[in-house]
Amino acid sequence: MIVGVPSEIKSDEYRVAMIPVGVEELTRAGHKVLVQAGAGTGSGISDERYAESGAEIVPDAATIWKRSEMIIKVKEPLSDEWPSMQAGQVVFTYFHFAADEKLTRAVLESGITAIAYETIKDVRGNLPLLTPMSEVAGRMSIQEGAKYLERPFQGRGILLSGIPGVPPAEVVVLGGGIVGANAAKMAAGLGANVTLLDINLDRLRYLDDVMPKNVTTVFSDRHNILKALAQADLVIGAVLIPGARTPMLVRREDLKKMPHRAVIIDVAIDQGGCIETSRPTTHAHPTYIVDDIVHYCVTNMPGAVGRTSTYGLTNVTLPYALQLANKGVEKASRDNIALAQGINIHQGRVTNQAVAETFKLGYSSAF
Ligand SMILES: NC(=O)C1=CN([C@@H]2O[C@H](COP(=O)(O)OP(=O)(O)OC[C@H]3O[C@@H](n4cnc5c(N)ncnc54)[C@H](O)[C@@H]3O)[C@@H](O)[C@H]2O)C=CC1
Ligand SMILES: CC(=O)C(=O)O
Fold first, then answer.
1. In what order do the strands lie in the sheet with 234-237?
2. Which residues are annotated as a binding site for substrate?
3. From 96, 266, 295, 346, the catalytic residue
4. Strand partners, 71
5. Could you say which residues bind substrate here (predicted)?
6. What is the residue extent of each domain of the chain?
7. Which fold has domain 131-299?
8. What is the DSSP letter of 293?
9. DSSP secondary structure string, 172-214?
10. Which CATH number applies to 2-120+306-358?
11. Nearest to residue 315, comparing CAs of 132, 139, 178?
């Protein structure tokens, strides 16, 4: 199979979808890998390293899209890339369809098979291709939150840790999955008081066991969310219903009950966001203010730390890429149920139930 790795074109996206060892593995298995010139630069990987590993370096994205039977990316295809998608091609990347109807319709019309990293689900219910980037984003959310709480960045001027004699910040984390747990651990490590909310009581029991004493677990209902928001200096949005649009947990009217110039980092923005006033932002312009609350809603947070994120991502994507290349989509997905759950759109049909329900489109299974 010919496998193409184009450069990412999203704003400040420094990740690349394959590292040289991936090229070596695919080449050894008899496949050809095309890598766009400069694709690895943001992660510190030179064209020479890819070429030594067996890749053909291709100067432009258009040629990669045209020649490849499977495209491996990091972020969803942007509108500039839509005309390059070809019927019958497999595209393996994050898609987050439920947050973007135009993308969903463009992919349906293109006739590609869209395999979304974020809905690949293993037998234990884990999302193995989302987990490492959620670890990055969860940890980063506290770094970013700490920064935007500073007054010169328009925040309320609070140091997360406090100091002897002055209390620490109140951090509220909505959702105790991978993002939420990583955010809570980081915030607690800095000395903040953390309230971690989730609807999954088994998950709360586990978190209550493993988190430090300055993390309090609370069942996520409207009453408890409002109570937590009233004290919050920093709120992290970390809720997910896999494949679906994020449930809205904070309404616009709730912002008025929060302390002035508190900061919201809505990590869940890639699936639509869990705050009514959230809208996607970029690393170049990460924040905006609504009702005196600072909002940070960057859809590719891990892209800013490419040297960490690229390795975290490719550690988990490569085994699936190899299965797809070796067996083709149909056999690979029949042999691996986790992979089958990643197929969101197959040749003009929606094959993920949550995406179909979000846009009231028909659903059918891929094979
Ligand atoms: N902006 C960015 O750059 C990035 C965004 N993300 C996004 O972050 C979000 C969270 O991802 P993960 O932590 O990996 O998901 P996860 O599935 O590990 O955790 C989600 C948690 O939300 C909980 N939840 C569901 N409904 C809830 C409610 N009403 N109240 C409270 N909790 C509720 C679930 O029980 C679960 O524990 C996803 O949308 C993911 O795509 C992840 C990485 C990077
Ligand atoms: C999960 C995701 O969309 C990202 O890492 O950018």
1. 215-219, 193-198, 170-174, 234-237, 263-266, 293-296, 287-290
2. 15, 75
3. 96
4. 4, 91
5. 15, 75
6. 2-120+306-358, 131-299
7. Rossmann fold (3.40.50)
8. E
9. EEE--SHHHHHHHHHHHHTT-EEEEEES-HHHHHHHHHHS-TT
10. 3.40.50.720
11. 132
Residues at CB less than 6 angstroms from ligand 1: 118, 130, 133-134, 137, 174-180, 197-200, 203, 220, 238-241, 246-247, 249, 267-271, 298-302
Determine contact, residues 113/347, Cβ cutoff 8 Å.
yes
pLDDT in tens, 166-207: 999 999 999 999 999 999 999 999 999 999 999 999 999 999
Tell me: the pLDDT tens digits for 258-302?
Answer: 999 999 999 999 999 999 999 999 999 999 999 999 999 999 999
59-83: pLDDT as tens digits? 999 999 999 999 999 999 999 999 9
Single-letter amino acid code for the residue at 139: R
Between CA 337 and CA 230 the distance in angstroms is 44
Pair of tokens at residue 107: 């992919």
Side-chain-side CA neighbours of residue 137 (13 Å): 29
To which H or E segment does residue 219 belong? strand 215-219
